[in-house]
Amino acid sequence: MTHTAGPSFVAPASATEACLAAITAAELIVGTDHDFVVNLYLALLDRWPDEAGYEHFMERVRDKPEERPGAIHYMAQSPEALSRGRHMPMPDPLVPGDPQRALAAQMDLRSSFLFARMNELKDRPKSEAADPAIAPLVRELRAEMAALRREMREELAAIAGRLTQPPAAEAAVPAAAAREEWADLLSLAEARMEMRLRALERRLP
C-alpha cells in the first residue's frame, strides 16, 4: 500500500493527552515506517504530519528500524514538542513492545485524535461552519469510529485467544510458526485498521 502524508491540521493541545500517557516508546516503534511517523507526530506534537515533516522522517527511518529511537529523541527535543511540554521516557536499550498491545495503543492514539478533530468541527461557531452538512457528517464519522474501535478490540482479543489456546499434542505447532502466525494475524488487523482510518481521515473537512 502506498501512503502519503495526511492533511495538515492541528488539534487542541489536550486532544491526545490521555493516549500519550498510555502509549510508550516501546509501543511506538512497533509497526510500519508509515505508522511510526504518523504516530510519532500524534504522540509528541498532537497533530498530523505536514508533508515536509512526513518525508523528512520517512527518509530517516525507511527500512531502518534501528533509527526509530533516534527519531523519537529528535522529535521530543524539537521546539514544538518542548512548547507542548511533551516527554516520552526512553529506556536504554529500547526494544519493541508486545505487538498486540502496541497495535491497541496506536489504535487508541489515532482514533482519539480523530475524535478530537470531530469534536472541534462540531463545536465550531456557526459563523465559521459554512457547510450545513458538517454536523450530520461528524455524527456519522463518530459512529463509524466507535464501531471501528469496538471491532478492533474484539479482533485483538480474538487473536490473543487463539494464540493462548494450548494446541493438541498431536498438532503441536513450533514456537517459530506460532510467532509467524501471530505476526500475520496482527498485520491483517493493522491493514484493515489502516484502510478504515485513512478513509475516515479523508472525509474530514
Any overview of this molecule?
- With 205 residues, this protein is mainly α.
- The chain has one domain.
- The chain has 9 helices and no strands.
- It has helices at 17-22, 25-28, 33-45, 51-61, 68-76, 79-83, 99-122, 134-164, 175-203.
- Helix 8 (134-164) packs antiparallel against helix 9.
- The longest helix has 31 residues, at 134-164.
- 28% of the residues are buried.
- Residues 1-16 and 167-175 have low confidence and may be disordered.
Order of SSEs: HHHHHHHHH
Note the quaternary state here.
single chain
Largest sheet entry: none
The structure class reads mainly alpha
**How big is the Rg?**
18 Å
Give the mean pLDDT: 73
The percentage of residues in β strands lies in under 5%
Shape designation: globular
Low-pLDDT residue intervals, each spanning 5 or more residues? 1-16, 167-175
- For the record, the count of structural domains works out to 1
Number of strands: 0
Q: What is the CA–CA distance across the termini?
A: 24 Å
Discrete helix count: 9
Helix content: 55-70%
Domain DUF4214: 32-82
Pfam families: DUF4214
InterPro entries: DUF4214
Protein name: DUF4214 domain-containing protein
